[in-house]
Amino acid sequence: MEAIIDGAVSLLVNVVPMGNLTRMKALTKLYVFLFLSDDLVDSGNRVTMIPSHVEGKEEQGPEYTVYNTLAKEILSEDFVQGKRLLESVLSWISTTQCTPPGAFPTLEDYMAYRAGDVGADSVFRSMEFACDITLFDTDVEAVEHLRSLCGKHFLLTNDLYSYAKEAIAEQVHGVSVLNAVRVVQRLMNTSEDSAKAIVRQVIWDVERQMNEEYERLLQDAPKSQLTYAQGLIVCVAGNMFFSATCPRYARVVEGSRLHA
After folding, report:
1. Which of 104, 133, 171, 204 ranks highest by number of CB atoms within 10 Å?
2. Which domain holds residue 157?
3. Which CATH number belongs to the domain containing residue 129 in this structure?
4. Any domain includes 258
5. Domain count of the chain?
6. What InterPro entries does the record tag this protein with (predicted)?
7. Interatomic CA distance for residues 210 and 233, integer angstroms
8. Is residue 259 part of a domain?
C-alpha cells in the first residue's frame, strides 16, 4: 500500500507541480484508488469497483462506496471540471477492460489505440482540475494539435520505461505485452534494445513537433491558451521523470540501470 501511495503522490507532484493544494489532495486519493483498483483487477476484490457513470448511485451497491465518496469530494470542489475529470477516468477504465488487437499494422495505428488506454487524457484533465483551468471551445480547438502531440509523448514515454515490467509479467504470468517497444520490435524484426532506441528517437521527434507547435502558439495565442499549453508540456515532462523513476515502472527490475 505504501508503494501505491508513493506512486500516486509522485505522479501528481511531477505532472502538476503547480496545482492547488486542496485539489491535489483530492486527486491523490483518486489516483491511489485507481492504482489499487488496477493492481487488484484480477483478484476479485470488489471494494475497488468503478461504476459506468460519473455520479455513483446508492443502489449500485456497497462495492462502489469508495468511488462514490471520492467522486462526491471532487464534484463538490468544482462540478464542471470534476465531471470532465471523472468522465475521462471512466472512459480510461472502460478502454483498459477491452481486449486489445493481437497486432498493429503500423506504430501510428498502435498509438491511436493506446491513446485511450494509457490514461493521458485523465492526467490532462487532472491538470485542468488542479490548476482551475477552463477553456472555451475555440481555445480547445486552438491547442488540440499540441494536446495530441503531448498524448503521443505521454504514451511512448510510459511504454519505454514500463517495458521491463511488462516483459517480466509476460515471462512469469503469461500476460500479453501491449507496448510500443514490442510493436516496433515486431514491425522491424529487430532486437529489444534497437526497438527501445527507435522509440526514444520517435519521442525526440514528437518533442521537436511540440516545440514547433508551441512556438506557433506564442505568436498570437491569448494567455488562456498559452497557460493551458504550458500545463500540457509540464505534464509530459513530469511524466517522463515519473516513468523513469517510479518503482511501478523503471525500478521493477532490481539493480537495473537506466540508459542515457
Report:
1. 104
2. 2-252
3. 1.10.600.10
4. no
5. 1
6. Isoprenoid_synthase_dom_sf
7. 8
8. no
pLDDT at residue 42 above 50?
A: no
* Residue 16 CA: distances (Å) to CA of 10, 39, 183: 10, 23, 30
Give the C-alpha separation, 126 to 129, whole Å: 5
Mean pLDDT of 163-189: 93
CA 18, CA 178: separation in Å to the nearest integer? 32
Q: What is the mean pLDDT of residues 184-191?
A: 97
Q: Which of 164, 161, 139, 167 is nearest to 226 (CA)?
A: 139
Whether residue 260 lies inside any domain: the answer is: no
Q: Hey, what amino acid is at 87?
A: E
User: CA torsion sign, 73 to 76 to 82 to 86?
Assistant: positive
Whether residue 50 contacts residue 58, with contact meaning beta carbons closer than 8 Å, is answered with: no
The kind and range of the H/E element at 51 are: none
What pLDDT does 93 receive? 86
Q: Which of 48, 5, 45 is nearest to 27 (CA)?
A: 5
* Residue 230, pLDDT score: 97
Tell me what the pLDDT averaged over the chain comes to.
89
Query: Model-level pTM?
Result: 0.89
Burial (0-12, 13-18, 19+ Cβ within 10 Å), 259:
exposed
Residue 102 lies in a domain: yes
Q: Looking at residue 98, what is its pLDDT? A: 83
User: Is 226's pLDDT higher than 60?
Assistant: yes
Place of cell 505532472: 15
Of residues 235 and 96, more confidence is placed in 235
Cell output for 201: 528517437
Nearest residue to 20 (alpha-carbon basis) of 121, 100, 133: 133
